């Protein structure tokens, strides 16, 4: 059973999401938050598997709430829901630690499959879409001063082998596991092993965070 917390300042939106989720045999809604502060508090109390996080909420917004929840080190994964599919808020949410994002007008099946994917540790956003999102908005967001180093200087990359560094680079370029296997002449199972080791060594929660890491450490430059 996947437990879900709904964080949205619109009661009707929360009601609709609850009705959809509770119609599923493998999901249950454990709570509703009307703002970011409530989401942070309820996440700490309830430890849900997934939080559906709105971005624009009064007081503490969804981005800062996401940052605080992921910084706490809980297993909870966050799925950002936003009005626009390619806006700076979605990128900021991913950088804050969300495992993916969907638009609010997504089909019910998309939302359900997104929750299931996030709950199992997968990223909801396709690699190619992630690349376009990052390319579009990386220049419009404040620079993180902690990442102003070259790839060889960044401590997060220090433990990677040459092959793992190579694979992290192409992950950042939006390559899927199948593409990596084909182009680098590796078995797909080997690629999956490498990806798992990269995530573990760099402390990345999922593939999206690995893509952001590749950008932050300058392994990949925006197009």
TrEMBL record:
Keyword Nucleotide-binding: no
Keywords tagged on the record: DNA-binding, Phosphoprotein, Transcription, Transcription regulation
Residues covered by the HTH luxR-type domain: 153-218
Gene3D superfamilies: 3.40.50.2300
Response regulatory domain residues: 3-119
PROSITE patterns: HTH_LUXR_1, HTH_LUXR_2, RESPONSE_REGULATORY
Modification type 4-aspartylphosphate: residues: 54
Highest taxon above the source species: Bacteria
Pfam family, one: GerE
Protein name: Response regulator transcription factor
Naturally occurring in which organism (per UniProt): Streptomyces coeruleofuscus
């Amino acid at each position: 059973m996947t437990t879900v917390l709904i964080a949205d300042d619109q009661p009707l939106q929360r009601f609709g999401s609850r009705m959809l989720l509770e119609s599923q045999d493998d999901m249950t809604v454990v709570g509703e938050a009307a703002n970011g502060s409530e989401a942070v508090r309820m996440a700490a109390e309830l430890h849900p598997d997934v939080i559906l996080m709105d971005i624009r909420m009064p007081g503490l917004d969804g981005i800062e709430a996401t940052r605080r929840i992921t910084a706490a080190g809980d297993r909870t994964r966050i799925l950002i829901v936003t009005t626009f599919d390619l806006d700076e808020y979605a990128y900021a949410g991913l950088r804050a630690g969300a495992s993916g994002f969907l638009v609010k007008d997504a089909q019910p099946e998309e939302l359900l499959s997104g929750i299931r994917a996030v709950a199992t540790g997968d990223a909801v956003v396709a690699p190619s879409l992630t690349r376009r999102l990052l390319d579009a908005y990386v220049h419009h967001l404040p620079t993180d001063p902690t990442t102003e180093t070259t790839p060889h200087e960044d401590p997060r990359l220090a433990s990677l082998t040459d092959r793992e560094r190579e694979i992290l680079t192409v992950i950042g370029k939006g390559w899927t596991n199948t593409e990596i296997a084909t182009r680098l002449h590796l078995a797909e199972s080997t690629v999956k092993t490498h990806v798992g080791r990269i995530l573990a060594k760099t402390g990345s929660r999922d593939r999206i965070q690995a893509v952001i890491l590749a950008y932050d450490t300058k392994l990949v430059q925006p197009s």
